[in-house]
């Protein structure tokens, strides 16, 4: 069923607002997916604060223009296309669609918008494989914590060994040292008789 002029205006306004607020927009072909599969994809996207919206090519192009984004050529929107908007993590929507496409080949990333630039199909797929910010932070933290744990272990081991060695030395000294000699009382010298003068 064709949209009325008023419906098109409403949809363009909605698309424009979402493009302005999105951290990235991915264009994906979806024709051939069942309704249940589209529902599953949309559910997965919502969990990561992303959403999918189907729109006509001309309306997407008008919305991009109204959002002050670069012009989207027809070549960037081949066939029936849906927009996948990511609101927080730029890679979220692309990554979910890319993963979903492994079991549902009807989904194909054909382009997008990121950082004010139009993405080709290759660039959209590359964006989908970039680790998310949380994944990068987790990797960074594991890289940081491992050396610290090793360093603490390396520091504590010699100190523990050193303390034990000191304790053993002290015990050996106590057992090996002879009893202290008893001090002898000095004997007073005997006074010699003074010879009598003749």
Task: Give short descriptive properties of this protein.
198 residues; alpha+beta; Alpha-Beta Plaits; 2 domains; 6 helices; disordered C terminus
Concise description?
With 198 residues, the protein is of the alpha+beta class.
Number of separate structural domains: 2
- Beta strands, count: 5
Cα-based radius of gyration, to the nearest Å: 41 Å
Shape: elongated
| CATH fold title of the largest domain | Alpha-Beta Plaits
CATH class bucket of the largest domain? Alpha Beta
Task: Write down the overall mean pLDDT.
Answer: 81
**Count of runs of 4 or more consecutive helical residues:** 6
pLDDT < 50 runs, ≥5 residues:
191-198
Outline the biggest β-sheet: 5 strands, antiparallel
Read across the widest sheet, the strand sequence of neighbours is 2-3-1-4-5
Level-2 CATH architecture of the largest domain: 2-Layer Sandwich
Question: What is the fourth-level CATH superfamily of the largest domain?
Answer: Ribosomal protein L10, N-terminal RNA-binding domain
Order of helices and strands: HEHEHEHEEHH
* Helical content (DSSP H or I, runs of 4+): 40-55%
What is the straight-line distance between the termini? Answer: 163 Å
Class based on secondary structure composition and strand pairing: alpha+beta
């Amino acid at each position: 069923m064709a949209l009325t002029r008023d419906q098109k205006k409403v949809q363009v306004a909605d698309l424009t607002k979402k493009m302005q607020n999105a951290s990235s927009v991915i264009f994906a072909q979806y024709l051939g997916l069942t309704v249940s599969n589209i529902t599953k994809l949309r559910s997965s996207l919502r969990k990561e604060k992303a959403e999918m919206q189907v729109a006509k090519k001309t309306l997407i192009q008008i919305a991009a223009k109204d959002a002050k984004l670069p012009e989207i050529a027809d070549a960037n929107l081949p066939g029936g296309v849906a927009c996948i908007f990511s609101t927080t993590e730029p890679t979220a929507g692309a990554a979910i669609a890319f993963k979903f496409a492994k079991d549902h080949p009807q989904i194909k990333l054909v382009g997008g918008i990121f950082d004010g630039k139009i993405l080709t199909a290759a660039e959209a797929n590359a964006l989908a494989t970039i680790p998310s910010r949380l994944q990068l932070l987790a990797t960074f933290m594991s890289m940081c914590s491992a050396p610290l744990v090793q360093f603490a272990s390396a520091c504590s081991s010699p100190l523990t060994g050193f303390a034990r060695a000191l304790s053993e030395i002290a015990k050996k000294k106590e057992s090996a040292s002879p009893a202290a000699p008893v001090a002898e009382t000095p004997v007073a010298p005997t006074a010699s008789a003074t010879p009598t003068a003749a």
